[in-house]
Amino acid sequence: MALSKISFFDFLKSLKSLWFMMIFLIIIFVFVQNSSTIEARHVMIRFSDSYAIYWEGLLQTLHIFVRFSFMIALTLIFTATTSPMDITYAIEWYLTPLRLIKFPTQIMTMIFSLALRFIPTLMTETQKIMNAQRSRGVDYNRGFISKKIRSVSTLIVPLLVSCFSRSIDLSLAMDARGYDPYGKRSSYKVLKFSLIDLFGIIFILFIMGFFITMCVLSEHIEGFDNLLNLLFGIEAF
What we know:
Strand content: under 5%
Helix content: 55-70%
Oligomer: single chain
Mean pLDDT: 77
Order of helices and strands: HHHEEHHHHHH
Number of strands: 2
């Protein structure tokens, strides 16, 4: 994140959507499951002989939350360091073998590039609609869940209408410019497989093979599982 010049506060803002999931996971793993379902051994709070809250449930929730946080961090780094056109070119290159079975790779690439292109536009359109609805007295932050759901409906319907309108205008503009989805197309930027790409793939495969080997060995070597958890914090399959 430091090399890609991503602010840590932007990362914290992107985690706001995970708090509801965090509360839901705590209810599932801590308050609902018992020792027979999560193989818990350490009691955190015991209410009776038949019901208790275990530390393993809380740690399992934190484990899932940290994994989702890392996924969001990687997504931020990927989008900050790679342009949408480079992503489109990469997807088209990876889909090249599917042309042998007559798969429309160019059409799928075009759909993906258009989706990436219109994400900022739709976000801007959503903000405009929300401001317009707020000026009419709609409150998206207060009230019970049922009221918030009704408030969101005032946002979704105009947004869908705007999306369909933009898609029709885009299709007419592409037809007017003579776009042929099945025609042979050239590219301004041609991607070529280089030696650095080969080293990158080998390095990733080496890391995957290393951890898979560790997990497999932990099932056959006595005491290896505890060492694996101590060093890497991972469990056997």
